[in-house]
Amino acid sequence: MHNQFSVAQALDDYAHFKMGSKSAERLSYSIEHLLEFWRDQTIDHVNIETIELYRRKGISSNRAQSTIRRELIDLRSAINHAANMSRVVPIKFPKLPKDAEPRTRWLNEGEFAKLLWAAGRNYRAKFTLRIFLIIAFYTGARKSAIMELEWGQIDFANNTMNFNKQGVEQSNKQRAFIPMPPEVRRFLLRRYERYGHLAQFVFHQKKKPNIRVKHIDKGFRAAVKLAGFTDVTPHTLRHTRISLLLQSGERQINVSNYVKVSQPTIDKVYGHHSNTDLQDMARRLGRTQKVHTTK
Q1: C-alpha–C-alpha distance, residues 43 and 218, integer Å
Q2: What letter does residue 231 receive in the DSSP assignment?
């Protein structure tokens, strides 16, 4: 049967097809988890029961529902690619788990300072983790965009950061090209003056600058634990920057352009932070529409 094609082969073919794209690195993480579950099973075994088992296993491994859903979307794309290449008979992919409600956890400036302090206490991770935290906190960029930064994307002369890589296919999740915040510039310039002539990537090993550092997850989790938090992830810093900008009264269109998030998303997820106009209206009502009562 055509659908005796293995899940592993479909994923491998799809990975090769996506090689060089901006989503390739993220896809590799999905494939790691997908292969751990399906191993040598064939596409015939992808059904509503195995999808639910995969979801439960992911939840028990402390992966977010949204992450599990993203992995299953990648599996669906791999199978569709195999069908498009006439390697398998097209199938009706089982219904995906519902997407989780958007996380709204964000840090105030005091909490961020505590996290930055905790990162500095981790001898092994602090070289890369502290600069990651600074960039993430002040720019609101996604983790992947930050970790892929090369020195060629940093323009100290014009004081800009371009999170888009030249020659790399753009994904649906747009990346920003923004003026460099002063605190970010200070950290990056100090790093560049010492290692820029030795390293291509901003994130690299301290003693071997030619070796890129791709992950900060382990050090991040350790810093979160030391800081006394339980619900903070790298993406929390993106929520934090958007929330703080809106709370300070910045216009939604400017926030949207700065962090590359759509205005409908801002309304849906962060609307409660940008109610300045409503507060002003309430104050005007209090001044102009007083109700006269008799004692």
Answers
A1: 33
A2: S
Residues paired with 177 in a beta bridge: 162
Q: 212: which strand partners?
A: 204
- Model confidence pTM above 0.70: no
Amino acid identity of residue 203, one-letter, is F
Encoded tokens for 122: 């981790």
CATH number for domain 2-84, candidates 1.10.10, 1.10.150, 1.10.357, 3.40.50: 1.10.150
Dist. CA 198–CA 210, nearest whole Å: 6
Q: How far apart are CA 127 and CA 150, in angstroms?
A: 16
Low-confidence ranges of the chain (pLDDT < 70): 1-3, 100-103, 167-172, 271-295
Burial class (CB in 10 A: 0-12, 13-18, 19+), 34: buried
Q: For the domain 109-273, what is the CATH superfamily, name and number?
A: Intergrase catalytic core (1.10.443.10)
249: left (phi over 0), alpha (psi -120 to 50) or beta: left
Kindly tell me the burial class for residue 139, based on how many C-beta atoms sit within 10 Å of its own C-beta (0-12, 13-18, 19 or more). Answer: buried
Per-domain boundaries in the chain: 2-84, 109-273
pLDDT tens per residue across span 182-236? 999 999 999 999 999 999 999 999 999 999 998 898 899 999 999 999 889 999 9
DSSP letters of 234-284?
TTHHHHHHHHHHHHTT--HHHHHHHHT--HHHHHHHHGGG--HHHHHHHHH
